[in-house]
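Annotators were shown the component list below and the corresponding predicted structure, then asked to write short factual statements about the assembly.
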Amino acid sequence: MATLDDIAKLAGVSATTVSRVINNYGSLSEKTKTKVFSAMQELNYQPNSLARSLKGKKTQLIGVILPGVSNPFFGQMVQEIEDQLFKKGFKMILCNAGNDAQKERDYLRMLMANRVDGIIAGSHNLGIEEYQKVGLPIISFDRYLSDNVPIVSSDNYQGGQLAAQSLISSGSKNPQIITGSNRPNSPTNSRLTGFKDVLEKHDLSYNLIELPFSSSPNIKSLKIKELLTNKKIDGIFCTDDLTALLVKQQAQALNLQIPTDIRLVGYDGTNFIQNYHPELTTIMQPITDIVTMMIDLLLKRIDDPDCQLEKNYVLPVKLIMGKTTL
Amino acid sequence: MATLDDIAKLAGVSATTVSRVINNYGSLSEKTKTKVFSAMQELNYQPNSLARSLKGKKTQLIGVILPGVSNPFFGQMVQEIEDQLFKKGFKMILCNAGNDAQKERDYLRMLMANRVDGIIAGSHNLGIEEYQKVGLPIISFDRYLSDNVPIVSSDNYQGGQLAAQSLISSGSKNPQIITGSNRPNSPTNSRLTGFKDVLEKHDLSYNLIELPFSSSPNIKSLKIKELLTNKKIDGIFCTDDLTALLVKQQAQALNLQIPTDIRLVGYDGTNFIQNYHPELTTIMQPITDIVTMMIDLLLKRIDDPDCQLEKNYVLPVKLIMGKTTL
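Structure shown to annotators:
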């Protein structure tokens, strides 16, 4: 079995450096990291699978990689994940990957090296190859990561349909959809497809604007203001609630009445939004069910790495009617 | 040196049970846990200090115990903690203790058993004794935990003063303060003291209502409605922003104009509030500075468990003027 010294020798660095790379400690060049990880791969050094193969050597640690808990949606999801894991005797190592690919990559390596039992991932900075290399049980939230990583998501297509229907029944003739960036293979794209399909049935066209998830609220607000000023739109579906709050702000500033002038529908329906913005019509994702499903699948994979799982697990959403559509 | 078997023998349970207690895995009675932890104490089994005493055996894991990340304030704080720890090569195990004393107790034990290098704690379900027993470096956010645990907080007294001043300059004659539960030794009580002292200087009296942090928003809203209906108040300082949002909601429902009828000041001033509720006058806590200070102190204690630290580290707050006071 390969040791730190073997890896150090092959990589041409000291054992201390290898240890630092594994623990991601101290300042290390990307070149050094790559040398060490190549050596680990060549010598088939797999700290985690090794650990798992030794009875009782499970760490009871789960790595969770998500965009960031300062967003109330991921805040609620992380709180739910932590709570459910705790009840099953697991602890959570949290990584907020934001839109920082290097951080996500470093975390993946740290999680592998620290022998977590499994990973829940819902970030999407890295390419497919990097997730395929991980060699640990992974379950994804709402993102395509790799063919062998099951995706748990809410029914994005149904959500898009419900949003379109509520705008139309509220009298919108010129609806608009504001999404984050649409990515190939991303389940969230179905929100757009569901929206589009319902409008087509009603012979309505729509406009689409993309506001990347990582844009600052100030920049988003500017673009929303431009949109509200220049276009003859009378209904907006935002594929997240926070963007809908910005639309509400800008509409107020421009003296546009909601829902008379502009009907508004958001997406996510967190407890936070339901408590502090009950006026907003939104599509509620079943966060508790999503988390229960992700943890259930992950524990199955941890118990039996070769167990067969579906590629997609889709949970139903709910329309929460507020005063922004009537 | 005591082994699992020694502890098992003394506690009168199997070694597997001891391991389960340490890892908090499977269903265990409180009685069994107490027996095992007493035996660990009697045999002076200190997994973490042991680990720390062996060079290179640091886990680079930090335990973080806070009320819960679904609250935007703690969400932003946790994101900042994680980000700063990551840059220093540490990973974070997150515990959302809510108001669940048993969960907080179980986590403390798990963190001790799992040999985290240190703990950041800002929850307050447990008595002083339990934090004194931990035997790990701990830094507290805004809570008195034990005499040897340094507290980092924002200047709660100054915050209370600023809130009172902004209500008064905005024309309030009958101000009100809505706080969470006031606890002995809690630094957050100073928000009330600072508020009170400024009012006294202006020969103004005030009313106080306490709404426990753990109350649901619906229950808080009911009490706020009652308050706004029955009392002749014209200004409210809420010691957290979310409660201020509920006041705004209820005032709107009762057709009370803000700030003409009711002046309103919150507390926390998270990025979330500044972005999505820029209208709210609030006292901004310097979250980044607080986190930098907590991590700096914690790493000092980890390097040298006997290093002398102050009891209190107090960082200045800022008044963010919005349209709810004018």
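Statements collected:
1. The domain at 156-286 of chain B is CATH 3.40.50.2300 (Rossmann fold).
2. The CA atoms of residues 19 and 25 of chain B lie 8 Å apart.
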